[in-house]
Every structure is written in structure tokens, then in C-alpha cells.
Amino acid sequence: MRRLAALVALLALAAAPGCLLVDITPGEQNVVPYRSERPPASPLRRVVLPPLRMEDAESPQELALRNALVDQITSRGLFEVVPVTARDLEDIELDSARMKGVYSTADLLALNRRFGADGVFTGTLLRFRAYPQMQIGMRLHLIDCRSGRVLWGTDLHLDASDRRVADDAHNWYDLVYRDPTESLVEHEKVLVSPRLFSTYAAYRISATLARSLRPESRAAEDPRPAAAVETKGDKNS
Q: Which of 9, 62, 138, 164 has the fewest Cβ atoms within 10 Å of its own Cβ atom?
């Protein structure tokens, strides 16, 4: 009975406005990160992000997701992220190399010289569905332009009809994105808005990137505003 009473009290506290909400991350099958056994010889300072290759999406969706990736990864303070266009990459064969999984030293050095880039993201937007349920599938790799090694990668598959993904998206909206003056029920928008769901997906990718590259740093923590994680006792402390 004591355990039941404590559980009821905890649930009531979590449901109250202004109280701490517990982060519920999607299952391992939704966000699958992997990283190189060896860290880069020196930290990355600037990484370029070319357009994502699209297998099942349209250009506006790719651009919105890429902009969200720039914002979310930059917010972690890991390195500068510079978006580049296909025209910027003239004479650099990233797309064909991505298909083969082998990147030429000449292309990577060209990126380094042209943009001052230590690294480059290469990615494919595998799926983007807005209706009837939001779905985003994506594959992203981070390559060191100086050594040619793949430092990190992730396969992302987020489906709003998956209850664990929906709960995590709601918590992301409440803990990270939501204006403290908004109603808590506003988080329902994230599951029907392509823009918000793209931002949520980019947030999840940036979190796995930070935990893989710098697990001991503050960049690996969720960048939540103080008001979003305030408990009842914080107001008077």
C-alpha cells in the first residue's frame, strides 16, 4: 500500500504544471547510433552539411529538416555547422561516393580547402510522411575530412503512431521547446506539424551525436530552459 501511495503521489507531481517531466527516449530500434573506435586526432571545429539525398521525400521537406539539423547540432556547441548547396559542391563528387560508401581523399581535401571544413555530414532522407501519421526515416554520417574516417553515424526511424515515440515527442515539446506560458496540451501539435516533428527529429539526432562524440561534456546533456525543468521547490530556493 505504501508503494502504491508513493506511486500515485509521484504521478500527481509529474502531471502538475511547472513540475519535472521525465524524459522518455525512443526505443533502440528508433535511433541507432554508431561511432568510430578512435576519436579524431584533433577536435572538429567546422563541419559542412550538404543537401540530403532524398529517397522518399520532396525538396521543401529536405530543406526544413536540414535547417533543423543545423540549429539543433549548433545548439550543442560541438562545432560550427555550415550548410552548403549543390552549387557550392561543384566538382566534388559526394553523391556518387555516398552511394558506394567510399570517399576520395581529393574530394575531402577539396572540402577542407574550400570551406575550411574539418568534417562533412552526408545523409539520406529515407522517408518523410506527413499524413496520416508523421514519419521520418533518415541516415546520417559524419566523416573526418583530414583522415577520411567515418567518426559517427545514425539510422533514425520515427513514427508518430509508435506510442514511445509519441510520448518522447510530447516530453521534448514540454521540456525543451514549449514556451512556459503555453498550455501543456499544446504538445499535441508536434505529432501533426511537419515543422515541429522535423525539429524533434533533429533534436534526437543531435543528442545521439553529442553523447557519442563528447559523452563527458555538457553538450551531451539536454539543453533545456530552466523554466521547463522547474520543480515546486525551485521557486522559493
A: 9
